[in-house]
TrEMBL record:
Resolvase/invertase-type recombinase catalytic domain segment(s): 1-144
Alphabetical list of InterPro entries matching this protein: DNA_bind_recomb_sf (IPR038109), DNA_bind_recombinase_dom (IPR011109), Resolv_N (IPR006119), Resolvase-like_N_sf (IPR036162), SSR_resolvase (IPR050639)
Lineage: Bacteria, Pseudomonadati, Pseudomonadota, Alphaproteobacteria, Hyphomicrobiales
SMART domains (UniProt xref): Resolvase
TM annotation in the entry: none
Protein's recorded name: Recombinase family protein
PANTHER family on file: DNA RECOMBINASE-RELATED (PTHR30461:SF23), DNA-INVERTASE FROM LAMBDOID PROPHAGE (PTHR30461)
Sections of the chain in a coiled coil: none
Length: 497
């Protein structure tokens, strides 16, 4: 199911399947459930992938698969995809039955025709729904309402009611709960607004480059919106995003039906100008745009490729991040626009990106993240009244002189079957009392969750985590470090008579 307020809620499906099983004297031994997942493609459908893997590898401990209806395989744009998955089950000798369909899935001509029609109808439903949703989003954009995404440095999301009366500011991870409420952008804290304005002044008036501005802010100890150091890319994003002048832009990139990501030309953009309170004067923004455009227009395709070749020789590899951080380089978005995609630009300079370079970039980012995580952990312990000592030689934390802890950041790995895995190496030589294992998300950009692993329960120096690990390990899983900070906290006791 994709949402839980429809007839396809998992509970309704389970009840219908259970009733069917009871009527046909079948015992349900296993349930594969993809809750809150889109059926447009198999990516993200971990339960369906697991079912197909169990079936193909002959690990299935059942002889019949019960499916609510034909559309539960997915509303794929290509109807043959769901037919292929059903056939894979039949090929392994497992029967597929549909619990609420008005036909028997017996391979007869009538059932084959009806199934084909229903599969095509499921895909058509997605196409029609996509068109309706897109039209609704375009209308909301025109009315000046924000449609998802991080607000960005110097801005905040504000919740308003149907009369445009402000209700509250939304923090990261908070969303509107009423259908009639909307979200707009507003200027953030004054010190952030001042930094954004200063970035524009430095770029337009002092003619500083993005690299120089980023270095200046980092030297002054001013973090970006995620609490991390500034980079050329993050400065460039502020200088090119029209939300800072109050414009609402949509449809710059299309990803309809989750098929192919397309960068749309400006004439296809949906926009509403001056619908938010501006952080930057339009004159400053236009001046910055002219500088950036002129910087790119001066270069021919051959010159851009020459610079890319030179950067490749200098760095040994290429990525969007490497390009954005390069001095005197057009941004990665300019390369995408000029050559259609970064991969195409790579091909023209004879570079194969490969997965190894992505691995290097990820590891470099994780190494940069460790000091930030460490600092936040130390601060959280001290805020709770605890004391902590950090050994720079062993990276071990000694808390309140009572127990030790270490921090491990686990990068996310993608298996060939599309599953997510995390590998942990526990320090068995120093044997910290608690290992704080931080799992990164699927893109290795943000923290997914935390595991507080006590050494008394860990008998191995290597641990492999899946998305779901059972109660033995997931009992130690937390969304934040508040529980750990609670262990470190100190409370003052009253005087007893």
């Amino acid at each position: 199911m994709s949402t839980d307020h429809q007839k396809y809620s998992t509970e309704n499906q389970k009840d219908a399947i259970a009733a069917y099983a009871a009527r046909h004297n079948l015992t349900i031994v296993r349930t594969y459930e993809d809750a809150g997942r889109s059926g447009l493609r198999i990516e993200g459908r971990d339960a369906l992938k697991q079912l197909l893997e169990d079936v193909r590898n002959r690990h299935a401990d059942y002889t019949v698969i019960l499916v609510y209806d034909v559309s539960r395989w997915g509303r794929f744009p290509d109807a043959d995809e769901s037919a292929y998955y059903e056939y894979s089950c039949k090929e392994a000798g497992i029967q597929v039955r549909y619990c609420v369909e008005q036909f028997e899935n017996d391979g007869s001509l009538s059932s084959t025709i009806i199934k084909s029609m229903k599969r095509a109808m499921a895909g058509e439903y997605s196409r029609e729904l996509s068109a309706k949703v897109f039209a609704g989003q375009c209308r909301l954009i025109g009315l000046g309402f924000r449609q998802g995404g991080s607000p960005g440095y110097g801005l905040r999301r504000q919740l308003i009611d149907e009369h445009r009366v402000p209700k509250a500011d939304l923090s990261r991870g908070e969303y509107k709960s009423l259908q009639t409420d909307r979200v707009i952008l507003k200027p953030g804290p004054l010190h952030e607004v001042g930094v954004v304005q200063r970035i524009y002044r430095c770029f337009v008036l002092q003619l500083k480059t993005e690299v120089e501005i980023a270095a200046m802010l980092n030297v002054e100890g001013i973090p970006n919106e995620f609490g991390r150091p500034w980079t050329r890319g993050t400065i460039h994003q502020i200088l090119t995003n029209e939300k800072y002048v109050g414009n609402n832009i949509y449809n710059r990139v299309s990803f309809k039906l989750k098929q192919k990501r397309v960068i749309n030309p400006p004439e296809m953009w949906v926009r509403a100008d001056h619908v938010f309170d501006a952080v930057i004067d339009s004159d400053f923004f236009l001046a910055a745009k002219r500088i950036i455009d002129e910087r790119s227009k001066r270069l021919t395709d051959e010159e851009m490729l020459e610079r890319l070749t030179s950067l490749l020789k200098q760095k040994g590899h290429l990525s969007g991040l490497v390009i954005d951080e390069g001095d005197e380089m057009p941004s990665s978005s300019v390369y995408r626009t000029r050559f259609g995609s970064l991969v195409r630009a790579y091909q023209l300079v004879g570079y194969d990106p490969g997965r190894d370079y992505q691995y290097i970039e990820t590891n470099r980012a994780l190494r940069t993240m460790f000091p930030e995580v460490l600092e936040k952990t130390l601060a959280g312990i001290r805020e709770g009244g605890g004391t902590v000592e950090f050994d720079e030689l062993t990276d071990i934390l000694r808390i309140n002189g009572e127990f030790t802890a270490s921090i491990v950041i686990a990068r996310c790995l993608h298996t060939q079957a599309g599953f997510l895995r995390w590998k942990l190496r526990l320090d068995t030589s120093l044997r910290p009392d608690i290992t704080i294992a931080i799992r990164m998300d699927g893109e290795n950009k943000d923290i997914l969750d935390y595991y507080l692993l006590p050494s008394i329960d860990m008998s191995t120096d290597r641990l492999r985590l899946a998305e779901e690990n059972g109660i033995y390990l997931d009992a130690y899983r937390f969304d934040d470090l508040d529980t750990f900070f609670g262990l470190s906290a100190r409370n003052e006791l009253g005087v007893a008579a």
